[in-house]
Amino acid sequence: NQGNAQFKAKEFGQAVKLYEKALKLSKTIGPDAADLQSQVESQLTTSYFWNGISLYKKRDFDQAVDQLKKAKAMAASINNAKIKNYAHIYIARVYASKGNALLNQKKPDAAVVQYDLALKEDSSSYQAYYGKSLVAKEKKDMTTMMAMVDKIGKIATTSPKAAKVYNNAKYITFTTLLNAGAEQLQETHPQKALEYLTDAKKYHAANADMYYYTALANVSLKKWDAAIAAAKKALSLQKIEKSDIYFTLGQAYQGK
User: Is pTM beyond 0.85 here?
Assistant: First the structure.
């Protein structure tokens, strides 16, 4: 009864302690307390879950996971499919949030550990894939970054929330690849620049700078027809200053 009172007051941590004590006493009594034990187990399962959520909101990630895992385990034992499923989802979410916190603290390797724990719990955790894409971006690992974003894209086909994250991830990935291509052009590595720009096109096709840089790379590689096509596309997309694009188009025609 004390546990019920604390649960109603949303003091879930206190409710957990009282229900745990009640459960221990019920087990000690044995069969005579079977009905009471069943009620306590049901209430304790729910209390573990909501205590975990409360701790998650307070950013006490480790304690939140501990409580949610207890909720999941007890829910399985009493056949509470709803709590089991929600606890499963939130465990992954807490791991991903801890990963985000570590990433903000400039601890990318520790963040990846948390993201992997999230994915081990729930392979459809788009938050974890997004976090791993950001770590890969920081490490300039373009292959992994794109692989993680593509994972989000698959989940986004059936999840509106994942779709919002995917749109943001695509923009970041496109910008990162575009900038990488520009850097390779400055370092006179046109073939490598072209590889980055080709990948960038997968995430955003209608960008004047991308086609302009592609034209520049193809001029350097003496691929005149490709340069002309890219420069024309850049002109069709550019709404303001176009003189640099026209100059590059002129070089391509001259080369051809």
Answer: yes
